[in-house]
Design a protein that fits this description.
Helix content is about 60%, strand content about 5%. It has one domain. It contains six helices and two strands. Strands 1-2 form a two-stranded antiparallel ribbon. The radius of gyration is 22 Å and the shape is elongated. The chain is mostly helical and about 150 residues long.
Length: about 150
């Protein structure tokens, strides 16, 4: 038998088709759990529990509410105390909101991909996502109280 008869792989390398793989994996996930009990890598699964979609969506919605409330407070004479966002506040409101929501959304997507990993070897990234959501909720309550004052 020739070596060609034993070759089962196709001519194209699947690893070179990243966009196609991501799209296909989004609609037909194959790995819902790690193959090995100690596997904690980003590529261990291509399906995440729907709760993480809900948490991610709530974080982004809270970010939008925070951007809106920040702009309302600034219009009433408040000042931005976040040193990263303060330079953006002086410009366009649309630019401020777009950058704020874009940065938060990018971070949420990254953390959702890492949700099964333990940060620093002990902190589940999923717990970190819940913490971010709780902090955003507390920030919104604080901003609403500032608006009432």
């Amino acid at each position: 038998m020739s070596s060609e008869a034993h070759e089962r792989r196709g001519s194209s390398d699947r690893r070179q088709q990243v966009a196609r793989s991501l799209l296909r994996g989004s609609f037909k996930p194959r790995r819902r759990g790690a193959r090995r009990s100690d596997e904690q890598t980003v590529t261990a699964v291509d399906w995440h529990h729907p709760q993480w979609l809900a948490v991610a969506t709530l974080i982004v919605l809270c970010c939008c509410a925070d951007a809106f409330l920040t702009l309302l407070l600034l219009a009433r004479g408040a000042s931005e105390i976040n040193p990263i966002m303060a330079p953006l506040v002086g410009g366009s409101s649309l630019t401020f909101a777009a950058i704020k929501i874009g940065i938060t959304s990018s971070g949420v997507v990254l953390l959702t991909q890492l949700v099964r990993v333990r940060a620093f070897g002990w902190l589940p990234v999923g717990a970190f996502l819940y913490g971010v959501l709780a902090l955003y909720c507390a920030l919104i309550v604080y901003e609403l109280r500032l608006l009432d004052a």
